[in-house]
Amino acid sequence: MPAPDKIILRGIRFHGYHGVAESERQIGQKYEVDVELRCDLSAAGRTDDLVHTVDYAQVVDLIISTGTKQSFQLIEALAETSASKILDRFAVDEVQITVKKLSPPIEQPLPYVAVEIRRSK
């Protein structure tokens, strides 16, 4: 069972090169990612010491690096890769990631399309 505590990161933005169309992967577009990390925060709360929690600045760097240095056809693959990297590198029980493609290239104008996944160790 995942920890009841969570760290919430909202609105991580970057310009990435993802999409089914070749033009999307060449020109790129804006993305926004939200992350929730389930982990036990009691030791961090008692000690007031970063060593007992997840350094969320490093998580933000990982998300931006994955989103800008790799290219995927599907935002599902971007979300899955990001979740897998977080679970491998940080002491979290579960991660929930929402990847939003801002201004998707479809006929009907939408502010974004998104996928949300939840993965556990």
The first-level CATH class is given as Alpha Beta
Beta content comes to: 25-35%
Strand order of the largest sheet: 1-2-3-4
Spans of at least 5 consecutive residues with low confidence = none
* CATH 4th-level superfamily: GTP cyclohydrolase I, C-terminal domain/NADPH-dependent 7-cyano-7-deazaguanine reductase, N-terminal domain
How much is the radius of gyration in Å?
Answer: 15 Å
Overall average pLDDT: 95
Into how many domains do the coordinates divide? 1
- Structure summary, number of beta strands: 4
Separation of the first and last Cα atoms? 10 Å
SS class: alpha+beta
Which of globular, elongated, flat, extended, rod-shaped describes the shape?
Answer: elongated
Helix content: 25-40%
Q: What's the order of the H and E elements?
A: EHEHHHEE
Q: Tell me what the CATH architecture is.
A: 2-Layer Sandwich
Oligomerization status of the protein chains: single chain
Question: Can you summarize the main beta sheet?
Answer: 4 strands, antiparallel
CATH topology, what is it called?
GTP Cyclohydrolase I, domain 2
DSSP summary: helix tally: 4
What does this 3D model show about the protein?
The chain has 121 residues and is α+β, with helices and mostly antiparallel strands. The protein has a single domain (6-120), classed as 2-Layer Sandwich (GTP Cyclohydrolase I, domain 2), CATH 3.30.1130.10. The chain has 4 helices and 4 strands. It has helices spanning 22-27, 42-47, 56-69, 75-89; strands at 6-16, 29-38, 94-102, 112-120. A 4-stranded antiparallel sheet has the order 1-2-3-4. α3 (56-69) packs antiparallel against α4. The protein is elongated.
